[in-house]
Automatic annotation (TrEMBL):
It comes from Eragrostis curvula (weeping love grass). Residues 105-129 are annotated as: Disordered. This is KIB1-4 beta-propeller domain-containing protein. It comes from the Eukaryota. Residues 105-122 have a biased composition (Acidic residues).
Length: 253
C-alpha cells in the first residue's frame, strides 16, 4: 500500500522539532512518524471521527474516518475535515489531533448585499457546480496554506466545471479567495498530491500563477490561470497508461 501513502516533513530537517510522518493510504487509520536521527519509526493509531461505511458482511453502518491527504505548513500538518473545519496534527512531542472551526460568515453587510446582487446567471452556474461533490487540495507555498477546490459538472463526472483557489487567514480562521499565486505554480495530482514550485528558466514551460491538474486515466492535463480565471485542456496522448500521476520537482535554491 506504500504507493497510496504520503510522506511529509513538518519543517526543514535541521529545524528543531522536525517530524517525518507517513500517512497510510486507503482505509487505514494510523500513521508512522519519526524525527531526523531516530533509529526506528513509531506507529500511531488515530481516531478523528466516523463516516458511513460501505455495505459489508458484518453489517457495520459506520467506520473510522481516514485521512486522505495531508499537508505540512508552519511546523504543523493540516488535512481536510469539512467545509467548516480544518483538521490539524501537531507533535507535542506526541501526536495531538485538533481542528480549526472555519468562519464562513459574511464579514460585513456590504459583502452580503454584493452577494445578493450577483448576476442571476452567474448564481445559477455557481450553485450548479458547487452542488456537486468537490475535490479539495491543500498546498503549502512560502509559509502560507492554500486550498484548491475542483467542482465537477455532475456527481459521476470527472470533468471539472470550476476551480477555486483560497488562502487560509489563520488569524481570522477564514479561507480568502486569491487572484494570484505570488508568481508560483501549483502542481496537483488528484486525491493525494499538491505542491508549489517556482517557474524559472528550466521550468519546462510551466506558467506562473497557474494550477496544473493531471488526470492519468483520461491522459489529460488541465491548466487553470488564477489571474484571468481561464482554463485550458491539454491531451497527453503519448503518456503511458496509469492510475496515478507523479510530478518530479527540481530542487529550489
Amino acid at each position: 500500500m506504500l504507493m497510496h501513502s504520503q510522506c511529509h516533513l513538518s519543517d526543514e530537517p535541521s529545524a528543531p522539532g522536525c517530524v517525518v510522518i507517513v500517512v497510510e493510504g486507503g482505509d487505514d487509520t494510523f500513521i508512522w512518524y519519526c524525527r531526523p536521527g531516530d533509529e526506528q519509526w513509531v506507529k500511531y493509531d488515530y481516531d478523528i471521527g466516523t463516516q458511513p461505511a460501505l455495505p459489508d458482511p458484518e453489517g457495520n453502518e459506520f467506520e473510522k474516518t481516514p485521512i486522505c491527504a495531508i499537508t505540512a505548513c508552519r511546523g504543523k500538518f493540516y488535512f481536510y475535515g469539512s467545509t467548516t473545519e480544518l483538521g490539524v496534527l501537531e507533535f507535542c512531542p506526541d501526536p495531538v489531533f485538533s481542528s480549526i472551526a472555519i468562519d464562513d460568515s459574511y464579514e460585513s453587510e456590504d459583502d452580503e448585499e454584493e452577494h445578493d446582487e450577483d448576476d442571476e446567471e452567474e448564481c445559477v452556474r455557481t450553485t450548479r457546480s458547487r452542488a456537486q461533490t468537490p475535490s479539495a487540495f491543500h498546498v503549502e507555498s512560502v509559509g502560507d496554506l492554500y486550498m484548491i477546490t475542483l467542482f465537477y459538472v455532475s456527481p459521476r463526472s470527472d470533468e471539472v466545471a470550476e476551480c477555486v483557489v483560497e488562502k487560509m487567514d489563520f488569524s481570522a480562521r477564514r479561507w480568502r479567495a486569491v487572484d494570484d499565486l505570488g508568481g508560483r505554480t501549483f502542481l496537483l495530482s488528484r486525491y493525494y498530491f499538491g505542491a508549489s514550485c517556482v517557474c524559472g528558466e528550466n521550468s519546462g514551460g510551466l506558467q506562473q500563477d497557474c494550477v496544473y491538474v493531471v488526470n492519468p486515466w483520461k491522459k489529460e492535463m488541465l491548466v487553470f490561470d488564477v489571474k484571468d480565471g481561464t482554463h485550458s485542456l491539454h491531451k497527453l496522448d503519448e503518456a503511458p497508461s496509469a492510475d496515478k500521476a507523479f510530478w518530479l520537482l527540481p530542487k529550489e535554491n
